[in-house]
Every structure is written in C-alpha cells, then in structure tokens.
Amino acid sequence: MTATAIKTRPVNLILLGPPGAGKGTQARMLQDRFGLVQLSTGDLLRGAVAAGTQAGLAAKAVMARGELVSDAIVLAVLKDRLDQPDVGTGTILDGFPRTAVQAQALDDLLARRDQRIDAVISLAVDDAAMVARVSGRYTCGGCGEGYHDQFKQPKIAGRCDKCGSDKMTRRADDNAETVSTRLVAYHAQTAPLIDYYRARSVLTEVPAMGDIGEIAGALDAIVSKLATS
Ligand code: AP5
Questions:
Q1: Do residues 118 and 190 lie in contact, with contact meaning Cβ atoms separated by under 8 Å?
Q2: What are phi and psi of 116, to 5 degrees?
Q3: Is 2 a residue whose pLDDT tops 80?
Q4: Is 113 labeled as catalytic in the residue annotation?
Q5: How far apart are CA 73 and CA 37, in angstroms?
Q6: Is the pLDDT of residue 4 over 80?
C-alpha cells in the first residue's frame, strides 16, 4: 500500500473488534493513507496514566485487570481530544465506543458538531487466535508503530521501520490472563454495538483473520468509496 495521502471530505469511521483484532494496525494505515486522525481511547488512557492525571490514576488498575474504564472517564478523555484542531479532517475511532452509553454519547457529541458516523467496520476474528496476536505485540516508543514477534517484524531487528527508534515497548496488559478478561468484556459490553450500528445501516463486517495487507486493501476500498460519495 502506498503512503500517499488522498484528500478526502471529513469522514468519521469506527473500527470495532476484540483485543488483537487489528484495530490499531489498520487505523494507523488508514491514517497515513487518508489523512484521517486515529483516536484510540486505549492510547489516550495510557497517556493519562503515564502523565499521572486524575483520570489516569483512576484508570490504571482497571486497565491492568483488563476491565473497561468507566464511561465518565473515557468520555472526558475523548471530549478533550475531539476539541483539538487537527480532528476536523475526520477521525478513525479505535477502541471507542465500547458500551451503549458511549455510543449514545458519541452520537450526541457529533450531532453538536454537525457531524455523524459515516461507517462502522467490524473486524471479524476468532477469539482463539487473539491471545497469540496480543502476547506477541510490541510498539515503537518513538512513533507508536506496532509490531509483532511473528506476524510483523521490522526490517532491521529492534529498529522501527517508520522512525528509526530502537526503543520498543510492551504493554502491561498484554498477557494471557488479562487478554481473557478483555475478551469477556468485549463480548458482554461491546459486541452488542454490532447490532446497534447494523440497525442504522452503517455497519460493514470485514473478515480479519487473513494477512494484514489483504485486510488493509478491504478497508481501503470501503473508505475510498465513502470519501468520494
Ligand atoms: P485498547 O488499547 O483499546 O486495547 P484493545 O481493544 O484490547 O485492543 P488492542 O490494542 O489489544 O488490539 P488491536 O485490535 O488494536 O490490535 P493491534 O492492531 O494492536 O484498550 C486497552 C484497555 O483500555 C481496555 O482493556 C480498557 O481497560 C481501556 N479502554 C480503552 N478504551 C476504552 C473504552 N472506550 N471504554 C472503556 N475502557 C477502555 O494488533 C495486535 C497484534 O497483532 C499486533 O502485534 C499486530 O502487529 C498483530 N496483527 C494485527 N493484525 C494482524 C493480522 N491480520 N494477522 C496477524 N497479526 C496481526
């Protein structure tokens, strides 16, 4: 896939899927390709934890257990980010919404900005494969690019392809026990949103067990169509 950004009208896209489905991987590729802004509530919360803010202090233990952070905290963190000027070009929501309350609040937030959700892409994967995907994940500490011990290695071992940094990090919640709790939370609280968005005719389900590049091609086709419609 080329890294050339295509100029589009503002598009708001949601990537839905369990831990390890590839939301972050695909969101970063769509960001590069379409100039949309990736908004990952997981990244925003990890940023709050690292900064030691009140929200971060409240979220830290909940995230370590693999449970969902309260709607109030997540919505406050997201609202702050939506108020930043770069977001006007359109967004890819990665890991948000995750509950019915968050979905309703998002509709309200966007309506106040005369915007709406244009598409919701549900990445369809097998739970059994997700533990391996998440356990092998590591991230560039310089630019946030994601890698995997087996499925996505940098060209030079230990050095980021994108920014050249050799600082790679692993998430504290990427262990088999916490991933199981995260999968339970996904099925109980987030998977029902698939029907919520299907009823609004904005849902597309994309098989996501294949190669990263193939899945990116499928998402590219969906977003290209939206951007020119
Ligand atoms: P968050 O950071 O959102 O984590 P998650 O949803 O559990 O998702 P992941 O980041 O684990 O997976 P991903 O789908 O992005 O996969 P990735 O592309 O990295 O949330 C963390 C925590 O924060 C939550 O548990 C909760 O506590 C809290 N939180 C966040 N948002 C919240 C909200 N809205 N409400 C309440 N609480 C919230 O891929 C994984 C690995 O697999 C990578 O190494 C990648 O290289 C590899 N890979 C990707 N695609 C493929 C492929 N097709 N084939 C092989 N390998 C692949």
A1: no
A2: -150, 170
A3: no
A4: no
A5: 21
A6: no
- Predicted local confidence at residue 1, as pLDDT: 45
28 is catalytic: no
Does 56 contact ligand 1 (Cβ within 6 A)? no
Query: What is the C-alpha to C-alpha distance for residues 148 and 165, in angstroms, rounded to an integer?
Result: 16
Decide if 19 contacts 183 (C-beta within 8 A). Answer: yes
Amino acid identity, residue 44? L
Q: Furthest-apart CA pair in the chain: how many Å?
A: 47
Cβ atoms < 10 Å from Cβ of 95: 22
The pLDDT tens digits for 130-151 are: 999 999 999 999 999 999 999 9
Cα separation, 72 vs 77, in Å, equals 9
Letter string b/e over residues 200-214, b meaning 16 or more CB atoms within 10 A of that residue's CB: eebbeebebeeebee
CA-based nearest residue to 140, from 119, 114, 169: 169
Q: Is residue 37 within 8 Å of 86, Cβ to Cβ?
A: yes
Distance of CA 42 from the midpoint of ligand 1 (Å):
8
Measured between alpha carbons, how far is 64 from 183 in angstroms, rounded to an integer?
A: 14
Q: How far is the CA of 24 from the centre of ligand 1 (A)?
A: 6
Helix (H) / strand (E) element for 180: namely: helix 176-185
Whether the CB of 215 sits within 6 Å of ligand 1:
yes
With a cut of 80, say whether residue 228 has pLDDT above it: no
